[in-house]
Amino acid sequence: MALLISRFFEVFNIPLVRGRFFTDRNNGAAPGVVLINESMAKQFWPKQNPVEQRLTIGKHVGPEFDEPPREIIGVVADVRDGGLNNEPGAIMYIPAAQVRVGVMRSITASSRSRGLCARKSSRFR
Questions:
Q1: What's the rounded Cα separation, in Å, for the pair 125 and 114?
Q2: Strand, coil or helix: what is 93?
Q3: Nearest to 33 by CA among 91, 92, 88, 79
Q4: How do strand 70-76 and strand 54-57 relate by DSSP bridges?
Q5: What residue segments make up the domains of the chain, in order of their start?
Q6: Which of the residues 16, 65, 74, 92 has an alpha carbon 20 to 30 A from that of 10?
Q7: Which of 47, 37, 25, 49 is nearest to 98 (CA)?
Q8: Which of 71, 94, 72, 74 is nearest to 19 (CA)?
Q9: What is the mean pLDDT of residues 23-43?
Q10: What is the rounded distance in angstroms from the CA atom of residue 10 to the CA atom of residue 21?
């Protein structure tokens, strides 16, 4: 999972495959949204368009991560941030403005020690 500031995809030249990028309207007061990469789309929605599907992030990681499902608003191209010899893995991108205060410190520790949990939420289809 990556927390993003505005213009991240523009700066790193990561193209949008479908849907839309984050906007200033995706702030802390707005409903939760997430972008996923192509690898995640292929893994969890192999024969569907994941845009407008719901994704639950962090359930069972800890109470500070408990939040309602987020809407997938777009799919971005895969990046090889783990090295050119490694296949891209599933990645979720969340606007930093939508992460509660205090959770930022926990994300690094949790992602290293226990992994962040993500699952599709079928009740919001």
A1: 29
A2: strand
A3: 92
A4: antiparallel
A5: 2-124
A6: 65
A7: 25
A8: 74
A9: 93
A10: 10
Decide: 32 and 98 in contact? Cβ < 8 Å: yes
DSSP lists the bridge partners of residue 61 as none
Cα separation of the two ends of the chain: 23
* pLDDT surpassing 90 at residue 54: yes
Residue 23 CA to residue 107 CA, distance in Å, equals 23
Range of weakest confidence among 27-31, 46-50, 92-96, 107-111: 107-111
The more confident residue out of 32 and 116 is 32
Neighbours of 73 (CB within 10 A): 20
| CA 119 – CA 112 distance, rounded (Å) | 19
Cα 98 from Cα 77, distance rounded (Å): 22
DSSP 15-52: -EEEE----TTSSTTSPPEEEEEHHHHHHH-TTS--TT
* Top-confidence residue, 65 or 11: 11
